[in-house]
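TL;DR need C-alpha cells for one chain.
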Amino acid sequence: MPGPPWSHQRLRNRGFRLTLPRQAVLNIFNQNPRHLTAEEVFFLVHRNYPGIGLATVYRTLNLLTQMRLIHKFNFGDGRNRYELASKFKKKYHHLVCVQCGKIIDYDSPTEKEADSIKEIEKELVNKYKFKINSYQIHFYGICKDCQNKQGGE
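>> reply
TL;DR here they are.
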C-alpha cells in the first residue's frame, strides 16, 4: 500500500501527482520505520525499480521534505537521515549513539520529562514571543550495546 492516504491527499492538494518515484519512496518509509539516508532509500527503491536513479531519489526526498511528508534530520555525522512524518506527531526526540550511529526514537517521555519540556517551551514562547509549531531534541551518548562492548574489553 503506497504511503498513508493523508500524504497522497497533501500531494494532490498542492497540485502534485503521485508519481512512481514518489510512491516508491513513500513505500520504503512505510516498510522501514528506521531513519534512512538517501543512499539507503535509493538502494531499497532500486531493488524493485531499477530505472529510478539516485538523482530522482534526492529530488523526491527534497519535495517530500518540503511538503512535510517526511522529516529530514542531521545528527552531526555528515549524513542526512529521513523518516516518514506522522500526521499527528509534531515533536521529535532522538537518542543518538556517537559510536555505532544507532538512532532511537524517544517518543514517550515520562510525565515529569514531558512537563519539563512543556515548561521550557512555555518559557521560550514568553521570552521571545515566538509561536513554536514543532521541535526536535537530540541526545548524544553511547547506547547499551556499545557500553556492553566497552565493558567486555
